[in-house]
Structures are given as C-alpha cells and as structure tokens.
Amino acid sequence: MSKRRLFASVMAADYTCFAEDVRAAVEAGVDGLHFDIMDGVFVPNITFGRDLVAAMRPLTDLPFNAHLMVAKPDLIAEQVIEAGANQVAIHPEAGGQLQRSLARIRELGAQPGVALSPGVPLEMIEWVLDDVDYVVVMSVDPGFSGQTFIPSTKQKLQKMAEMIRQRGRDTRILLDGGVSPDNIAELAQLGATDFVAGGAIFYNRPDMDRAKVAAERVRQLREAMS
C-alpha cells in the first residue's frame, strides 16, 4: 500500500502569526499544506488566493494542495498554480466543462483533482476518474473550518474506494473535514489514503508553544493512521 499522507489545512492557522504556524506544521512533519480557496460566491465565505500561496511558497518545498471552492475554477486554477500550487482540486458542480478544466490543470504542471461535497453523488465524477490524480471526499459542507464530521461520509468513502478499485486506478482519496486521532484509523481502513487536518494540528492559544503543539498533534495523527 502506498504511503498515507497528512496535509495541514492552513485555514485553521492563526492569521496573526500565519508564517509561524505554517513553519510549525512543516517542522512537525506534515506531507504538505492544504489551501482552501473560497470566493464568497460558490460558498458563503472568502478566504485567500494566489497571493497567500505565493507568500508561503518560499517557506517550504512540500506539496501545496489547493482546494478551489470558487465559481470560476479555470481562472483561479491558473493563478494558484503560477503562485506555487502543485495539486489543484475543483468541484463538478461549479459548472463549465469539467474534463477540459482538469486537462488544463495538468497542462499547467499541477496534479488535477476533483472534490465531492457531502451532498454530491459519486456519479458526478465517474467519467473523469481517468483524468484525475486524486479525489477529495469532503466530510463537512464546504465553506467553514471547524465543522462536525458528517457520519454518512464513511459509506461514501467506502464506495469511492470500491469504484476506484473496479476501474483499476491508483487514484488517491483525500479525506477533508473533521479528521482527528479518534477517527483517522477507521477512515484509512475505509479507503482514504490522504488526510487534511486543521484544528487537529493548529492550536490557536498564545500561551502555548506552537511548534511543540503541532509536533505532538502530528505525531498522534500519524500513529493513529498507521
């Protein structure tokens, strides 16, 4: 089995000392950084875009995973790839020509992925599985950090893994939302190969040593998922 990977969601970092939190996560041993790009149209929240990705790129050569929750994924994908994103996932319900958009992401030099919101059926992406390197299975509704894990995601995750096996693909499954040391082992058994963790890594209290907290939390997650 390929190595399971852990991505730190920078959306959960403390924005008043963003670079410090990112460095803490990198030094703790995460496999990459996850950027939730939101435009206030596709979802009711606005986060960040290419400027933050570009600002963080000099801090590490780890993969940058960009999850585009935007109404114009083709435009934003090009921007974040130019800024340093290595992996870019888009939503099928964002509209446009999904296969063409995925092909363009690969053409620009990044790994294309497709993201499934909790209410979106697997059939929406069945015919583009040959065009992606990974699938993001969301276990919370897109838009905000810190939400509670949706239990039905487990069944969806299992079916997604089976669909990939039946097609003979080695497509990775990135589980995004509500990941913790308490559920990560079960999610791995159900088929997830990669995980996004935000609040489970970052602990935004000024009286705590950020590096020590991140190191301990990453250790706990790795032990549980292995």
Q: How many structural domains in the coordinates? A: 1
Q: Kindly state the number of beta strands.
A: 8
Strand content: 15-25%
Sheet with the most strands: spatial strand order: 1-2-3-4-5-6-7-8
Low-confidence stretches: none
Q: CATH superfamily assignment? A: Aldolase class I
Distance from N terminus to C terminus (CA atoms, Å) equals 11 Å
Provide the CATH topology. TIM Barrel
Q: Major β-sheet, in short? A: 8 strands, parallel, barrel
* Global mean pLDDT: 93
Label the structural class: alpha/beta
- In the CATH scheme, the class would be Alpha Beta
How would you sum up the global shape?
globular
Helix content: 25-40%
Features:
226 residues; alpha/beta; TIM Barrel; eight-stranded parallel beta barrel; 33% helix
Could you please describe the fold and organization of this structure?
The chain is an alpha/beta fold. The chain has a single domain (5-225), classed as Aldolase class I (TIM Barrel, Alpha-Beta Barrel). The protein has seven helices and eight strands, in the order E-H-E-H-E-H-E-H-E-E-H-E-H-E-H. It has an eight-stranded parallel barrel, surrounded by five helices. Strand 4 (87-90), helix 4 and strand 5 form a beta-alpha-beta unit. The termini are close together.
Short synopsis of the structure:
It is built from 7 helices and 8 strands, in the order E-H-E-H-E-H-E-H-E-E-H-E-H-E-H.
List the SSEs and their pairings.
Blueprint lengths: L4 E5 L8 H11 L3 E7 L11 H7 L7 E6 L3 H11 L3 E4 L7 H10 L3 E6 L17 E5 L14 H14 L5 E5 L7 H6 L4 E4 L12 H16 L1
Parallel strand pairs: 1-2, 1-8, 2-3, 3-4, 4-5, 5-6, 6-7, 7-8
